[in-house]
Design brief:
The protein is of the alpha+beta class and about 350 residues long. About 25% of the residues lie in helices and about 35% in strands.
Amino acid sequence: MSFLVIDGLSKSYGDVHALVDMNLTVARGEFISLLGPSGCGKTTTLQALAGFVQATRGRIVLDGRDITNLPPNERGLGIVFQSYALFPHMTVAQNVAFGLEMRQLPRRERDTRVGRLLELVHLGDLAARYPRELSGGQRQRVAVARALVIEPPVLLLDEPLSNLDAQLREAMQFELRRIQRKLGTTTIMVTHDQAEALSISDRVVVMRAGRVQQIDAPHRLYEHPSSDFVSSFVGKTNLLRGRVRGSSVELAGGLLLPLAEPAGAEGSEVTLCLRPEKLGFADGAEGRLPARITERFFLGSQWLYRVSTDLGELEVSCANDGRPPWPEQARVQLTWSDDVARVLPPEGSAP
């Protein structure tokens, strides 16, 4: 049974439609990420859930209770803002205890809850410190503890890791997921970082221009994108245009690409998604497509190559196995398996 239901939620500011017919059902304990570029409607969705903006139309139902028109303080949701919004004049323990004081919990229960949450986020030894005495990652964990200590039915996260450096951000992704799994709190996170969304979410909601484009598990979203936009926004991709010829697609230059899935009606135009890591370099004449390496980039764990082909410029990603990289301007042969090319639905089809 769905724990949280967002039904036809929309928000307009005059002629500007920030959110259009948002539909989403969330199970209890699920971790959902709203992913998309700036202006796609993900923050508007979070603000509508929190009660900070009034929806133009639609409903929000939480555990069978319609909360659409309730003020924020009556929804009981936990919120972690991008800036953390900690009280600078309060200690770590006082910051975490603030919501419990507002609810007038007895001192003993308050101290017990605060102590338990601080241990969970590995800040038990820092309870007496002030926010200015903490690192960015520690302040982020204080904000999470403060939101969770009230035992909210839903935790809302607004770009919670965006202020952290790259290395700490990656570490905190998994820390955040660990805490969420430990408590089983239903969580909705807003992010524009695809790696962040894919790595820790149960499902990802991809949004564009106020509309949902696709809702799916991270691996399915990546392997089976529903559109050009999703395939390009969620990871790198090579988009190839062609026409259906039987069980194959005819690409530029007459190259026939066999497919492991139906492509559409005979002669119809289709777009294929071919991820860079699914391409490789073949020895001699064993490849499928001649290419010339025009650029290469070292990314640590992998090499990213840009190659010129009869199909246009493509990207190829190869694991860094310690061997010398291919040189720029080298003539190579590309190869890939028949089952890695994905046929994308026509633009404008229903998500």
